[in-house]
Amino acid sequence: YMAKEAGRGRAQLFEPVYAQAVDQRLDLGRHLRNAVEAGTLQAHYQPQLDLRSGRVTGFEALLRWTHPGRGPISPAEFIPIAESSGLIVDLGQWVLREACRQGRAWLDAGLPPRSVSVNVSPAQIWNVDFETTVSAVLAETGFPAALLCLELTESLFVDHTEQRISRTLTALSCLGARLALDDFGSGYSSLGYLTRLPFDCLKVDRAFVGGISIAPEKRKLLGGIIALSHGLGMTVVAEGAELPAEVDVLGGLDCDLVQGFVFSPPVAADEAPLVAASIEREACRARPKRNRL
Ligand code: C2E
Ligand code: MG
Ligand code: MG
Ligand code: MG
Question: Which part of the chain is the EAL domain (predicted)?
Fold first, then answer.
């Protein structure tokens, strides 16, 4: 852009590009607003393998959106737009209901009970009576609260007193749902929060997981985080494992669950049970090898 615009005034140098970006956001926002009714929104599911039992004990629900003109758009792009426009409250409610409905359908189909994790944005928690929303969705779908896990990130802690955060999380916890701290290690990662807030589960960001098979210092750090979490009574999920060697290291570090491309990317709901079954078969075959480590 700079080269093309060279010679023009400074303000003009950046304005067209900026306007285009704003335009695109507005356009995405407009389409996103209709996505729920248009049926272009989907939840995909990524399996989580319990390394000790070799069972897929849960799935994380991840939003997928197909833009009418542009095709599939990554949540990394549209979630921030939804968050800044307030649309996330509706989207978030949609995915929560959809995930619980799906989880119930899997139970009704006779599949083994598996948890469903749903990502929750701070705006959902602070802008509406989220606790009531969750309990209404659980009642409406008949999905057991104990199988629902709400994934929250550190961005929840911004601008609120610890007392307020603690009260809110405790209320959610009292519904019977589990609470996970997502993306641990990607931000400030305050250990204080872990000791004082009622998280059941810690999800270690893939920045901490990728490369552990070749980086001893990363391995030590992760081992420490896992030991600390266990000491606090939390389950640890490693996100983003891509290599079998990383899974072996995670098992050796006593990590509880692994979620990553090494097993499966997020898949459509109708594929998820089949993918889970095939991961379990493979884990069963691989187990004797893994135990030797
Ligand atoms: P997240 O909650 O940390 O979800 C995990 C992300 O890591 C997913 O990206 C998943 O596809 C990706 N991932 C899993 N395993 C691997 C791996 O082995 N390698 C690599 N490179 N990536 C892996 P996705 O689906 O693109 O979602 C990105 C983020 O968007 C999520 O990160 C979450 O913060 C947000 N998001 C997605 N769905 C929702 C939603 O329904 N509500 C809210 N509030 N946020 C959502
Ligand atoms: Mg998540
Ligand atoms: Mg994460
Ligand atoms: Mg995230």
Answer: 25-280
